[in-house]
Design a protein that fits this description.
Blueprint: E1 6-12, E2 18-24, H1 25-29, E3 40-42, E4 45-54, H2 56-66, E5 69-71, E6 73-77, E7 86-87, E8 111-114, E9 121-124, E10 130-137
Antiparallel strand pairs: 1-2, 3-4, 4-10, 5-10, 6-7, 6-8, 8-9
Keywords: Disulfide bond, Signal
Domain C-type lectin: 29-135
Pfam family, one: Lectin_C
Length: 138
């Protein structure tokens, strides 16, 4: 189905966390999107939302076992060395989108949550339970 329509999806996660994106109607309606059942295609990746809040490490373990990558709890941390941020999948930490005043390590915050208002990042305590979104490449 070729169409210029855009489907906008919005996932409410927790206290200001959200993911906004658009996919074409063609991508949304293709039976063979390349994604497993329950997953949503966006660009060249598939996403799934887990509504059950998990601590960062628990969400990360689910990611590793399934081969997916973490979003919302976005996989960034400075747990090895304070102030040295890294991605849990080993990719280079060469992009940031911190909210004003972040990261501030308020009360020993070592994990990154996405969309701390205005689509920015916040460092938060890793043991807080939060819903999360996993992603995998097609």
């Amino acid at each position: 189905m070729a169409s210029g329509c855009q489907l906008v999806f919005f996932l409410c996660l927790t206290s200001g966390l959200f993911f906004v994106g658009t996919v074409s109607a063609q991508d949304a309606n293709e039976q063979d999107s390349g994604c497993e059942p329950g997953w949503t295609r966006f660009g060249s990746r598939c996403f799934i939302f887990y509504n059950t809040p998990k601590q960062w490490i628990d969400a990360e373990l689910i990611e590793r076992v399934t081969g997916h990558r973490l979003h919302t709890w976005i996989g960034g941390h400075d747990a090895v060395r304070e102030g040295t941020w890294m991605w849990s999948d080993g990719t280079k930490f060469d992009y940031t989108r911190w909210s004003i005043g972040e990261p501030n390590n308020y009360g020993t915050e070592h994990c990154i949550e996405m969309n701390w208002g205005g689509n920015y990042w916040n460092d938060n305590k890793c043991h807080y339970g939060k819903p999360f979104v996993c992603a995998k490449d097609l």
